[in-house]
């Protein structure tokens, strides 16, 4: 059993299989597509919603420091991802990397973790999209009935679970269905749409930064680090670290880029560029928006669904014209995040299925569109149900801890592989190994420690469910554990 659990994939055969696969995924993505996919996934809920929430509840104006801390962890993890993506340019992201370095059991562990990450991220963002879309229609006198725009259940720490009186969050399910059709039709079409959306939302963000600079009241930045309330994680330096852990959710887009390695035209060169450029661009935008946001409005007022819109209201009539573009940018931005998260999730299902750890159904490729249509359909149904039935506060809780765990394992894997397989061709090398991966792992682990106990308990329950599936099905059907004939 122990021998089976920790068997590793041979990197050479892994690469040969991906090159020789017939009827597999089509290589159509360029560097530009990959950078846009990264920006498309990173610039979304984090910048349009999470900045205000984290500033109001955890870090105040010092949320800019939180973003820098998270960015440092992401940069180091990103350098490790870039080495893996150039060395092992196959679908599957951290799952595939772990399979070749830590063995099958750890690969399944991280794969199941990625499923949690992408499903719940897509669901969370779909609910956020619904809120902005409903508000946008309200501005034009079109009102969706209340019982069709909210989850039927909600949860608070004081009241527990309770019924809201709503039937379903229809707009959230609608956008998921639209994105699934695009993904089934083809990766290049999806990437082209994403490129257009990325341009729209980046322009809107730059407009907010450019015009908002004139309305900053530096008094709102004082105190820059609000005094701790006496409780860990609520302002002070512990609040900065709690804020960094919470907003880590905003950075998971570059992880999604690595899931498309098997569809990149020149993955050895393009994947590192796609990961690192998208991470750099988004970090600069996040820090700048946070500074402008907390400069225009006091951080204590920003715990609202649309903090950027609130800041525009605070600026007065001179910036009122920007409200509509911001809502359009938010709707477009959140749409692209849903698209990229569902794309990544379907590729994780596809890759795990090809290894035999999930049924063959998930790795079927459409004969016309060359996309994993079954995986995409299952992903869209799961995300649609999650978004339609559950409240956003429950959906967002698990995403950061799952992402941090994935990044930690990738950093550790780089150190292991440098020792065990120094002979493998590395078109891109992580600099200063083992310093960079070790620091990356430590920063990610420190942010995991800063998260609430409830988040850890929910993660443990999810992982136990994954272990049941692995030992009941995966280990028996694993292609790696079957004797070759």
Report on this structure.
It holds the Pfam family AA_permease_2. It is a multi-pass membrane protein. The chain crosses the membrane at residues 34-56, 62-84, 105-129, 160-184, 196-216, 236-254, 275-297, 328-350, 371-392, 398-418, 430-450, 456-475. It is found in: Membrane. Helix 6 (94-101) runs parallel beside helix 17. The longest helix has 36 residues, at 104-139. Strands 1-2 form a two-stranded antiparallel sheet. The radius of gyration is 22 Å and the shape is globular. It has helices at 2-5, 11-20, 31-42, 45-59, 63-87, 94-101, 104-139, 170-185, 187-212, 236-247, 253-258, 267-296, 307-315, 323-354, 373-389, 392-395, 399-420, 435-449, 453-477; strands spanning 153-156, 160-163. It has 19 helices and 2 strands. With 485 residues, the protein is mainly α. The model has no long low-confidence stretch (mean pLDDT 82).
Tell me briefly what this model is.
Pfam families: AA_permease_2. With 485 residues, the protein is an all-alpha fold.
Strand tally: 2
How are strands sequenced across the largest beta sheet?
Answer: 1-2
User: How big is the Rg?
Assistant: 22 Å
Helix percentage? 55-70%
Structural class: mainly alpha
Beta-sheet strand percentage?
Answer: under 5%
Number of helices: 19
**Mean pLDDT over the residues:** 82
What string, H for helix and E for strand, traces the elements in order? HHHHHHHEEHHHHHHHHHHHH
For the largest beta-sheet, the strand count, sense and barrel status come to:
2 strands, antiparallel
Protein name: Amino acid permease
Transmembrane segments: 34-56, 62-84, 105-129, 160-184, 196-216, 236-254, 275-297, 328-350, 371-392, 398-418, 430-450, 456-475
Membrane topology: Multi-pass membrane protein
Subcellular location: Membrane
